[in-house]
Every structure is written in structure tokens, then in C-alpha cells.
Please model this.
Amino acid sequence: MPNSKLPLYGFNNLTKTLSFNIYDVCYAKGEREQKDYIEYIDEQYNSDRLTKILCDVTDIIGAHVLNISKQDYEPQGASVTILITEESLPVSLIDSSCNRGRAEILSTRETVVGHLDKSHVTVHTYPEYHPESSIATFRVDIDVSTCGKVSPLNALDYLIGSFDSDIITTDYRVRGFTRSVDGKKLFIDHEIKSVQDYIDKETLEKYDAIDVNVYQSNIFHTKMLIKELELKNYLFKTDIYELPPRQRLQITDSLRKEMIEIFSGINVY
Model:
């Protein structure tokens, strides 16, 4: 993992940012079922659960929570922001407005934001559907930005496992520079060829994955599309055995088309 082993002068000023974007696609046959699906997703991934996920991410990368903000939205969606710090700070140095993740404080607030001293973790959810389609989509955007020795890549496997992901897009970028003890500028403090190197092999085997990397700018982009589509896992309030074979094929085709368009970023069909 990319923990700095280089002797540096002063603080490591490099900013390492992981933007993690997932889509979960579902078949809901009517507008009522689609609305029920959105309500189900909204409850499954409410701000409390998302806060738990982001706090786990903070632990995994070896950081400490300074402040948490969270919010559930109407009609749907949720957001959580956590401010984090690489080293645990003395209480006397922490701003009095920070809650350090204490649950009893969070329960009295309508919104929650979490802060780290040099870094932050955020999540936003976007459930959506259209009444003219039987396909509903749930999107999650997560950003983990760190400075110092902690690396957001260490939490990538955990994040993938925390959501049902049909399409996964990850962007990893190292920005700024720090200096070695002799004053030489360092624009990256670890070797990296692909984001895929930080994803479990068993997970990768389930997806088709492509990279679009700009090595000169320390930008690493990976897109992943689920290979196997088992229809029963994509039906909401519909029993697969109630569907005739032809309709099963039509639904499977619609789901796959939706995934391909999201993966490609264009309207293909």
C-alpha cells in the first residue's frame, strides 16, 4: 500500500484523492414498485448507515474523526461529510464546534458533517427512476481525500463490498508536491500503475475493467462493469418464476442495456 517511506522535509503536502462512484440497477415493473424501490433504497442507505461506512473507512486508512455532518433529503437521497485527521489531536486543539463523531451530539442535529484535520470523507446518494421505464437506478458518490501518510486506496476494497455494485467508476489523483530533506520536489510518494492493483482479485474477476490513466499527471481512472447478470437478483417485488421465458429475456436485455449506457457514459440504444 502507498504509505510514504521517503525522508521528507516537514509535512507531506501531497493530496491523494479517491473518487468512488457506483451504480446499482433494478427492475421495478410499475411506477408504484419503482417508488417502493426508492423508499427501500433510501432506508437501506440512510445517513446513519452511510455515517457508519465512512467511519469504518476512516479507521481503515488510519485516520481520526474530527467532525461529522449528515443529512437525509426529501423526497430521497442522503449526504454525509466527515472531517478527519492523520494524528489524534489533543482536545484543547479541536474547534469547539466539532463533535468528534459522538453519537449523542449527532442525534440532536438535522444535518451531520464529518471533518478530519487535513482530510475529509464524503458520500452522496442519488436514487432515481422514470415512470416511462421499468428500470430504477441507485447511484452513490464517495470522495476520500487525504494528506500525509494515510492513503484512501486502502479503503477501496471495503467500499466496493459495502454496496451492491453493477457499475463502478474510480478516479485516483495525487496533487501538489512535497519536498525531500535535500529540497527536491516530490510529486508522488508511492508507485502505482493501476487502481485495479488495490482491488481484491476475486472482486475483479466479477467485472470487465478498463483503465484510462494519465501517468504524467498522476491521474488513474478505472471503470468496471459486472459480467454476470442473474435476473432474480434484479427483480423488485417480482418473482422470477411468475415471468414467462420471453419476458425474462426482455427484462435481462433492458437491464444490460442500461448498464452498458451508464458504463459507456453515452446513450447507445
Summary: The longest helix spans residues 245-264. DSSP finds six helices and eleven strands in the chain.
